[in-house]
Amino acid sequence: MAQPGPSRLNTRKQGKKTPSTSAKAKRSLEKQQIDKLENEALNFDPAPALKNFSELPISDQTKRGLKKAFFVKMTDIQLQSIPVSLKGKDVLGAARTGSGKTLAFLIPVLEILYRRKWGPTDGLGALIISPTRELAVQIFEVLRSIGGYHSFSAGLVIGGKNLKDERERLSRMNILVATPGRLLQHMDQTVGFEADNLQVLVLDEADRILDMGFSRTLSALLSHLPKSRQTLLFSATQTQSVADLARLSLKDPEYVGIGERGASGTVVPQNLEQHYSVCDLDKKLDILWSFIKTHLQSKILVFLSSGKQVRFVFETFCKMQPGIPLLHLHGKQKQSARLTTYTKFMSTSHAVLLATDIAARGLDFPAVDWVVQVDAPEDAETYIHRVGRTARYESKGKGLLLLLASEEEGMLAALKRKSVEVQKIKIRPSKTQSIENQLQKFAFQEPEIKYLGQRAFMSYMRSIHLHKDKSIFKLSEIPVERFATSLGLPGAPKIKFLNKAIKKAQDNVFDKKGEDVNSEIDGESGSEDSGPESSNAEDSQESGDEEDEPQPKSSQPPVRTKYDRMFGRKNQNILSEHYSKLIEHEAEEDDGDDFITLKRADHNLNENSAFDVDDISKRKMKMGKAKRMIATGGLSKKTIFDEEGRPHEVYEMEDAEEIYHSKGGLEGVKEEGNKFAEEERGKMKVADVVDKEEAREKKREKKRKRKDRERTATGDGEPNTAMLDTLPEDDGYTSPEFNLPDLPSDEEESPPPARKRNKTKYRTPNDNLSFSTQPTTMEDDEALALKLLRRR
Fold first, then answer.
1. Mean per-residue pLDDT for 668-676?
2. Which residue in 469, 451, 494 sits closest to 594, CA to CA?
3. Mean of pLDDT values over 723-736
4. C-alpha gyration radius of the chain
5. How far apart are CA 691 and CA 685, in angstroms?
6. Alpha-carbon distance 361 to 339, whole Å?
7. Cα 385 off chain centre by
8. How far apart (Å, rounded) are the C-alpha atoms in residues 99 and 792?
9. Can you spell out the DSSP letters for 539-567?
10. Residue 749 and residue 707 share a domain
11. Contacts of 528 (CB under 8 A, 6+ apart)
12. Are 127 and 170 in contact (CB under 8 A)?
C-alpha cells in the first residue's frame, strides 16, 4: 500500500489543473471547428452531383439531428437555398408546395446561431413567422426533431395558448416560432421581451400571411426588429404583394426557386393525378357521400368554402356513420381541438378530414391519397395549394375538383394560365347515393341540425357573393331552392344581396332583349323566358322580393310535401321561432350590405313630437316625458321660503365664496370646522354613555328574569344553586320559550302551567333523572284564571 506523501499531493494538484486544461483545449478545438465551418460555408460551391445533407458545410450536431429524423437527401429548393443562406445572404425562395421549404430555412437558422456561439443569455436569435397555427406547430416539431443535439432553447407562440405562461418563458428563448398576431401582442405588452439582437428572420408562406390580412401586422413587426439581420423569405407563389414585402424587408436578396426569376413557381407535383367533374350544386353532398363510401380504405382531405359548411357536413355525416373516421378543422375551433384534430389526421392511415382553406397551406399530412375540393377555390393559386396536400415529395396522390356548369369555363381558363392541366371525368348517376331524405329527417328531428343547415346555406351564398372573380362565380345562376332542399331545409332563408343579384340579372336579360321590364315581371306577355331563374319562378319569389312589388306568376300552384307540412309546425323548440324569422319575414330594401334581413319594429317616430299619440299609451307618454326631462336636465323644481320670505330650492347649495368671506377667511373657516368637530365629539361621547347604560340595564333585566324563572322552577322560592352551576353563562340570548309577557307589578306571579315532559328538561348533577315543573293544585289554577280575567 502506498504511503501518503508529497507525490500524492502533487498528483492531486495536477488533477486540479487537468480539467481546466482540457476545457481550454475543448474551447480552442471548438473555435477552430467553427472557423473552419465559416470558411467552408463562405467558399462553398455546390457541385451538380451534390445530393446528401452530409456533404454540406454544417456542424456535426445538425448532421446527427438530420440523420436521426431520417433526412438524408436534399430536394431542389434545399440544394439551391441552403448554401446561399449559410453565406449570410438574404434569400427570396419560391418553390411548389411540398418541396421541402421547411428544412431549407431551419438548417441555416441552426447553423448561423451555432457559428456565432449563441447562448441562453444572448436572448432571441432567430424568429420564424408562420401564417397559421397548424403550420407553426409543424415547423416547431421539425425544429425539435433536427435540433436536439444543439443547446438552443426554442419556443412556440401561437394564439389560443395561455398568454401568462408564454410571457414567463419568452425572455429565455433563442429560437421562436410564432404567428403574427400573437407575436405582435407580446412585443407590445410583454415586459422584457426584446429582439434587438435578432440574427435571422424567416417569413414562411409570405403570400399567405399577406392574403390573410396580416400586412399591417407584419409592417409593425418589422419596425420592432433590427435592420442588421439576415432575412429568409419563402413563398409558394411570387405575387406583387410578396415582391413589395421583399423590397421592404430584404437587402440585395438572392432569388432561389424552381424556374426563372419572376416565374410564378406554382408548378403542381409531378406525381399528382388531377381530375374535375361538372355537377349540379344540389348533388354535391350526394357525390361526396358516395365518394367516401367507395374509398373507406383511403386517407381523404375534403375542402369546403366555409367553416359553417364544414360543421354541417361533419355533424350530418357522423350521424349517417360512413364506416371511416371523420374529422373536421376550421378557424372557429378552440386551439386544443385544432391541435387534436391535426395530430389525429397525421397519425391515422384511413380517415376523412373536412377542412377550410386553413389546411391548404404548408401542412405536411403524410400519405394523403385524395384531395377532394367540393367547393371551387377562389383562384388558381388556392387550387394549387389545396392539391399540394397530396403527392408530397416523391409520393403519389390524386385530386378531384367539383365544378358547377357556370364555373367550368372560367376556372379552367385560370388554371391554364398557371400551366395546370386538369382532366375531366364523368360521375355516373347510378353510382351516386342520394342523402337528401336523410338530411331532411335530421333537420326535422333535431332543430340544431336545421340551424346548422341554414348557416351553411347562407355562408356558401355569401362566399359566392364575395368572390372577386365574377366571371367564375355567378350568384344569379345558383339554384337557390334546390340547394336549400339538398341541405334538408324546407325553404331557402331570405338573403338581401341574393334578391338584388337575381333582380339585376333579370334586368340585364330584359334590357338586352329591348323589352319592357315591368311588363315582363307582371307576366302580361306570358313569356316563360324571364331570366336565369325563369324555370323556377317560385324560387325567385321565395327568395325574397318585397310584397308591394309585382311577382312572377306561376302556371301551377305549389305542391306541399309532407316535409313542408312538418316544417310548418311551430312546436319543435325555440329554434323554430328563429327559423320563422329567417323564412317568413318581409324583405326590406335599403342601401346597406346586411347579410340577413330580419323583421324589425318600425322605430321611425314623428319629427314634431317625440311620441306618436295614436300608437303609444298615456302611461308610456308620461314615462317618456319624465325620461326626456331627466336627460335634458329639465326636472321640475320645488321652491321653499325662509323666515325672511326669500325663495330657495329644496336642495340649494350655499355660496362657498360668501361663506368663506363671512367667516373671516381661511383661519375663520378652520376655526369653524374645529368647533363643529368638537361639538360632534361631545355629542358622540354623550350618546356612547347612554348606549352603554342601556346595554347594562338590558343585561341586568335579563339576569333578573332568569333568576325569577329559576326560583319558580324549584318551587320553594329559593334559587337552585346546583342547577345554576350547570346553566351556561349569560351571553345576551333569551330563549323564545321563556320570553313570556311581564305581569302587572301589583300582582303576584303565579307559577306557569305544567309543561309536557318532551319539552325543555333540566338535569341535576346528582342524578340523571329528568324533571319538569311541580304539579299545580286546584287553588293555583283558580288563582291563575282570576288573573287572566282581570287582564281582559
1. 83
2. 494
3. 44
4. 44
5. 10
6. 16
7. 25
8. 109
9. HHHHTT--TTS-----SSPPPP-HHHHHH
10. yes
11. 534
12. no
In a domain, 673, yes or no: no
Residues 335 and 305 in one domain: yes
Mark which of 232, 257, 282 sits at the end of a domain: 257
* 309-336 tens-digit pLDDT: 999 999 999 999 999 999 999 999 988 8
pTM score, two decimals? 0.56
Distance CA 196, CA 411 (A): 47
Q: State the angle between helix axes of 284-293 and 307-320 in degrees (0 to 180), rounded to the nearest 10.
A: 50
DSSP-derived pairing of the beta strands 154-157 and 175-178 = parallel
Rounded to whole angstroms, the Cα distance separating 755 from 712 reads 13
DSSP 54: G
- Cα separation, 468 vs 610, in Å, equals 45
From 409, 434, 459, the end of a domain falls on 434
Hey, how many other C-beta atoms are within 10 angstroms of the C-beta on 449? 21
Q: Closest by alpha carbon to 146, among 82, 231, 91, 95?
A: 82
Burial class (CB in 10 A: 0-12, 13-18, 19+), 373: buried
Rounded to whole angstroms, how far apart are CA atoms 177 and 157? 6
Q: CA-CA distance, 484 to 476, in Å (whole number)? A: 15
Which runs of E-coded beta strand occur in 636-702?
639-641, 647-649
The amino acid present at 443, given as its one-letter code, is A
Nearest to 326 by CA among 313, 343, 309, 307: 313
Q: Are 82 and 46 in contact, with CB atoms under 8 Å apart?
A: no
Grid cell of 655 as nine digits? 355660496
**Rounded distance between C-alpha atoms, residue 267 and residue 259, angstroms:** 9
